């Protein structure tokens, strides 16, 4: 493999086309692989920062760009872009990202983990259902939107979810029902945590001001430990 810089924009094949994303490498240059899946805003500075934070924890992190370079500036624009990305289309693009990441010499794991937020949390679950044994750890943060799959029968990854008790976008009752559906249909290990916080509580750049630093710190620590323990 050609030498990689610590942080760079990359291209990779997906569904016969060139897809793009942001790759962050740890200081040592190698480590277990993690796919970082964006919110409905696009591949923002915040999502790049999440990839950088994972790299600082020793992971090789790839954040695919699901919107082809477009970033939303308000909720209406974000909702419109998300509506144009059906679950199967997004999951297929992300499948190319999984294969690309597993093909990097920098990636030391035979499987990858995945973490995503809002729409990306939904696609975390869709990708785990689609990719089976290739995904060993999946971390959805308040997973909603186009990406949420209908069936979890294909999931082989362990799941750690982070959901909000004050989430008006995805009421906690739905989150608890999702948790039970995943557990029943996949037969895998499923743990959901619930926080006294609103939707998007982890995003410190969220324009709605929903960021809750204490809940975000606890959830992040749990997520990093979970990924470290379950990607091999």
Average pLDDT over all residues:
92
Total of domains: 1
Rg over CA atoms, rounded to whole Å, is: 16 Å
Which runs of at least 5 residues are low in confidence (pLDDT < 50)?
A: none
- Strand residues, percent: 25-35%
CATH class: Alpha Beta
At CATH level 3, the topology is Rossmann fold
> What count of helical segments does DSSP give?
6
Assign the CATH architecture. Answer: 3-Layer(aba) Sandwich
Structural class: alpha/beta
State the share of residues found in helices, binned by percent: 25-40%
Q: How would you characterize the overall build of this protein?
A:
By secondary structure, the protein is α/β, with parallel strands linked by helices. 36% of the residues lie in helices and 25% in strands. It has one domain: Alpha/Beta hydrolase fold, catalytic domain (Rossmann fold, 3-Layer(aba) Sandwich), CATH 3.40.50. It contains 6 helices and 8 strands, in the order βββαβααβαββαβα. The mean pLDDT is 92. It is globular. It holds the Pfam family DLH. Its EC number is 3.1.1.45. InterPro entries: AB_hydrolase_fold, Dienelactn_hydro, Dienelactone_hydrolase-like.
